[in-house]
Design goal:
alpha+beta; seven-stranded antiparallel β-sheet; 25% strand; 477 residues; elongated
Length: 477
Amino acid sequence: MSGPVRALRAEWTKLRSVRSTAFALVAMVGLLLLMTIASASGSSTSYDGPKAYDTLTFAHRTTTTGDGTYTARVASQRNSSPWAKAGLLLKDGTKSGSSYAALMVTPGHGLRMMTDSKHELVGGGDVEAPVWLRMIRAGQRVTGAWSADGRAWHTLGTLTVADLPATGAEAGVFVTSPKRSVEKRTGPGEISAHPVPTTGRATFDHVTMPVGQRSWSRTDIVQPPEKSEPPMDEPAPGTLHRAASGALTVTGSGDLGGLGMAGVGAGPGVDLVKQSLDDGTQLATLAVIALGVLFVTSEYKTGTLRTTFTASPRRGRVLAAKAAVLGGAVFVVALPATVAAFLLARPYQRDNGFRPPLFDNPSLTDPAGIRAVVGSAAFLALIAVLSLGVGALLRRTVPAIVLMFMAVVVLPLVAATTSIALGDFVGSATPVAGMAIQQTVHLIDSATTPWAGFGVLCLYVAVALVAARFRLVRRDV
């Protein structure tokens, strides 16, 4: 049997034969799951805004026939908001809330087709102006298509519009742009958000529609406030300019769509995956810190480390074997626990308002979700190995546990209540930066990126092990 294999087997035998190992691993799993449930059940959100929006500027003409083909090219579109909308609109009159079919392009989210704020088709995620749009109406069914050049067309799909009149509907182009939520960090863990109006602008050409009249009308469709809601600020009036070439330039503000559709109701971001793992993982570090420190300092205390080094004189190999066995054991036990934590948190999150259509339903099949769940287990494993390195350096249990506890638990808590700058420093330049591996959404208070933060933790582990090896080799047990 080779030396490395013999060292691994010896360290594994030690780890599993110590009663405190099982206790620490069980405590890690229990703390992780209990804190996850407590955190998920205590978090909540609610939405008290309108369930649908129909506020826009409409350049329109009255149709003389029911069925037909409606085409326009969105030659340009101002990026006033990622969810600004410009495109074709068929509508039962010009009253907000009346039946409609709309095909639109957005600066940040591709194409959308909607009917009556109830049904939506999504396509062309990277499509932006200039783009050709076409709606073909056949009775109550409307088919949407788009083209990059006006010759090769791609069908987006077909939707049914409930109450569009057979004749006399209004047809034309529209522009709208929702309020932009401006977020600001007002203190440690505190974020304020306030809406700022935006004005969309788009130019349309090659507009062809089955209408008799040649003149265009402009209507600012404004949605009345709901009875249970405070009055909404009316958007600024839109404009319509018709060039000599026939191109139409339209500006407008507002929004179009139903709750959870085309950005309607979207507010400050929430990372539900991190929310389900964060608190439980932090509390579980208490158990792995104790396990990592005791795995080496207990041998100093009892003097068994002398026997270990007599049997295996290569002290660096012994330390590496300890790190591999400890990290592997913690990871293998922690991974099912982090998967369970993710699955346990979701029902509580849904019951507390974090559910579609306003919030995505995170899944373990998503690459970012897999990274967060597996990364949480890896974070615990690395904290255990870091604790092992610190224990080998200090050789005493209490000082090593206190130092790790201060660095991984106390310092983040102090930073979270002291200042934004200190919080960002701790979150990006100390071992807890490894918690960033749980991020699936980059938010305004994200101190670092997932892999950068995880790399910082790996660097701390590497430095601690190298320093511990140096001290083991240079000093007697």
